[in-house]
């Protein structure tokens, strides 16, 4: 067996066409998950009545089960639920018209929400309580203190962990191929099967994942320097 280097380049170009979908499956869940995670983190920190235990259960379940299971539960369970509701309430909604990608995005968003909630919560808790008291002393409301003082510092401290989550969900997007979504790994599998050159195709896919990861890490490093400039007494 001999490695076909020219084919690696050909496979890379073909697999590159799946990059936009992979980025969609990575960043949309992270944005939605951040909003979910922020709400869950605040509910757990302030022990919001009626929500606290639900938030704890949600985080525990999602973090205690694999992402592939979340995708399967949403992919098979959500259509069943919607079909049942549709028949009961005489909706004209057709579940078959919903793209598979939507189910994957929902599953990944719920997964991201649980993981991000822990990162946000730990970041908020790490900010000294005196910061909040100082905000109250100058007449700020709880909302103003949280948005202007606590959250900026919490997120700045959490950038390394947030970077890990971004890279992790870039790789987790490959699971979508199990439900026939043709992202990078799925496209690599198709290219490999069509040409019977599996090693070359997956080398190309690996290089693409690696390249995107390097870009994410460089961007995160730049953001980290800017966000934590106050710790160095100036703007970097």
UniProtKB/TrEMBL annotation:
Q: Name one GO molecular function term.
A: transmembrane transporter activity
The entry's cellular-component GO terms read: ATP-binding cassette (ABC) transporter complex
Q: Which GO terms describe its biological process?
A: amino acid transport
Q: Which InterPro entries match?
A: AA_ABC_transptr_permease_3TM, ArtM/GltK/GlnP/TcyL/YhdX-like, MetI-like, MetI-like_sf
Q: Where in the cell is it found?
A: Cell membrane
Q: Which UniProt keywords apply?
A: Cell membrane, Membrane, Stress response, Transmembrane, Transmembrane helix, Transport
Question: What kind of membrane protein is this, topologically?
Answer: Multi-pass membrane protein
UniProt-listed Pfam families: BPD_transp_1
Domain ABC transmembrane type-1: start-end pairs: 19-220
Which segments cross the bilayer? Answer: 20-46, 58-78, 98-116, 162-181, 201-223
Q: Which family does it belong to?
A: Belongs to the binding-protein-dependent transport system permease family.
Which NCBIfam families does the entry mention?
HEQRo_perm_3TM (TIGR01726)
Q: What is this protein called?
A: Amino acid ABC transporter permease
Native organism is: Listeria booriae
